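Appendix B. Chain record.
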Amino acid sequence: MFDSAKVLRQQEKQTTRRLFLIGGTSAALYVALSRIGRFHVEAGETVHGSPGDITIVNFSDDGKNLGKQTVSKVLKSDRDWLQQLGKNSYEIARQADTEIPYTGVSWHEHRRGIFRCICCDTALFSSQTKFDSGTGWPSFWEPLAKENISPRNDLSLGMARTEVRCARCDAHLGHVFNDGPEPTGLRYCMNAASMRFIPA
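Structure tokens predicted for this chain:
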């Protein structure tokens, strides 16, 4: 006899597999095209942001809290940022690009230490809150200090997300999502090119 339920299950599996492959291919194509076509403009003398002071929390390289300090915001021209950072980190940290997953220098970093902003050296995350999210980007369940990051609404790509920036220099770090582990339930999905790792 003809088993219609079995056939339907096989068709559902094939459809799910096709959708998965199409979705994955589309995501990979989008990342590749964004790397080729976006943000490849000459860096000029335009300075973004507003001058002023901000209070951040300082940390030693071994992660010890050194207390709050009021510092000036870091403002530089696009040309100065490009000269300081190089093309890859400039496009990611200053132009809000996204690095290709599994390519960042610290996505698989497991030593004890802290992650600092590549632009202004502000302490951002500790290796003690880093976890393997399976995404290919460094992921953390909380920052070292909430004062050191600046969340913003991001409506790009046709979806609502929360972008995370460095509070002192406005560098684009990545995004935060509500699918992380306990105790916070958050996943700070960061770009390795926006940070530098300092081993303790």
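Further analysis of this model is presented in Appendix C.
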